[in-house]
């Protein structure tokens, strides 16, 4: 159940991020890619952004509705019992997702720890390597939620 | 010296609160400590990003089990980390012995060389996890561990 809820919530957040990105940058490129030139008219921008934001807000609304409708005490009791696992799972999930989508950010962090090395941060093989490790951490995060 | 897997005491359950007469610090000190390392000898940036031998040392202060692990791993920057296993889904000594798969990541805060992060260790006995301090980056490894009961 925790895996399902987290999966749905992460999907909603990614959709929302993409919707905000389309609105701000006025192009259809994925939010985790480098920003391109604005290419959408105002109407197209709103329409494209709505494609992402409406479903994401609907999903978040459904989750909030379920929280209000169901026994909240049960939820808080569950959170109390699994707080550490939840924090750990979310950390790995977020770190894995960041490494998958924005390996350049993680490589900048690594470079700050190894200032005397040339990490070739623009090298595609280095980025692919970080992406594979990110996928591994992301899977580990999902696995933690499955065990909760 | 007995093999740790023979130990029957459950040492680390899900988020056990500290006892009333026990400080939080001593509660943490009773949790298993793990030091893990990876030497990425081959890969895009040898010594920093790549694959290579991996290992670790774990100490459980409750059962006095000392475990040493060796295996292979992949890392991007995250070549060394130290931390506590604050929660586990079963007998932590069983998880620390034998084959296991582990992964973790550290942020560059407060320092890139010693940032805060998280590690997870899993095998057929369950999943153990906890906070770490280590080099910024991420890593994963597969290791085999042997444990000894020191006293």
The CATH class label of chain B is Mainly Beta
Series of H and E elements of chain A: HHHHH
CATH topology of chain B: Lipocalin
Q: Helix and strand succession of chain B?
A: HEEEEEEHEEEE
Number of spatially distinct domains of chain B: 1
Can you name the CATH architecture of chain B? Beta Barrel
Radius of gyration from the alpha-carbon trace of chain B, in angstroms: 15 Å
Biggest interface goes to: A-B, 38 and 39 residues
Write down the domain tally of chain A: 2
Characterize the overall form of chain A: flat
Description of the molecule:
- The complex is a heterodimer of chains A (148) and B (151).
- Chain A is mainly alpha-helical and 148 residues long.
- Chain A folds into 2 domains: 70 residues, no CATH class; 77 residues.
- Chain A is 79% helix and 0% strand.
- Chain A is flat.
- Chain A starts with a helix and ends with a helix.
- Chain B has a single domain, classed as Lipocalin, CATH 2.40.128.
- In chain B, strand 3 and strand 4 form a beta hairpin.
- Chain B has an 8-stranded antiparallel beta barrel with strand order 1-3-4-10-7-8-9-5.
- The N and C termini of chain B lie close together (8 Å).
- The relative contact order of chain B is 0.26.
- Chain B is globular and about 45 Å long.
- With 151 residues, chain B is mainly β.
- At the A-B interface, helix 3, helix 4 and helix 5 of A face strand 2, strand 4, strand 7, strand 8 and strand 9 of B.
Give a short overview.
The complex is a heterodimer of chains A (148) and B (151). Chain A is an all-alpha fold. Chain A contains five helices and no strands.
């Amino acid at each position: 159940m925790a895996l399902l809820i987290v999966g749905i919530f992460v999907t909603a957040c990614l959709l929302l991020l993409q919707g905000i990105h389309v609105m701000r940058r006025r192009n259809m490129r994925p939010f985790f890619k480098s920003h391109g030139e604005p290419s959408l008219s105002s109407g197209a921008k709103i329409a494209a952004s709505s494609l992402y934001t409406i479903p994401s807000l609907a999903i978040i609304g459904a989750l909030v509705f379920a929280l209000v409708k169901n026994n909240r005490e049960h939820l808080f009791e569950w959170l109390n019992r699994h707080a550490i696992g939840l924090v750990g799972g979310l950390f790995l999930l977020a770190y894995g997702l960041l490494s998958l989508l924005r390996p350049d950010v993680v490589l900048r962090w690594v470079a700050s720890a190894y200032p005397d090395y040339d990490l070739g941060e623009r090298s595609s093989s280095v980025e692919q390597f970080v992406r594979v490790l990110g996928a591994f951490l992301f899977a580990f995060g999902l696995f933690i939620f499955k065990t909760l | 010296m007995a093999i740790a897997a023979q130990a029957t005491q459950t040492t680390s359950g899900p988020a056990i609160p500290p006892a009333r007469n026990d400080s939080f610090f001593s509660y943490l000190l009773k949790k298993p400590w793990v030091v893990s390392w990876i030497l990425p000898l081959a890969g895009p940036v040898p010594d920093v990003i790549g694959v290579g031998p991996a290992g670790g040392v774990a100490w459980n202060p409750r059962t006095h089990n000392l475990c040493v692990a060796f295996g292979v791993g992949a890392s991007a920057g995250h070549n060394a980390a130290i931390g506590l296993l604050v929660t586990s889904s079963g007998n932590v000594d069983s998880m620390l012995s034998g084959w296991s798969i582990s992964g973790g990541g550290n942020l560059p805060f407060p320092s890139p060389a010693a940032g805060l992060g998280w590690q997870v260790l899993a095998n057929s006995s369950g999943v153990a996890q906890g906070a770490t301090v280590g080099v910024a980056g991420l890593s994963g490894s597969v290791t085999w561990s042997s444990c000894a009961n020191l006293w």
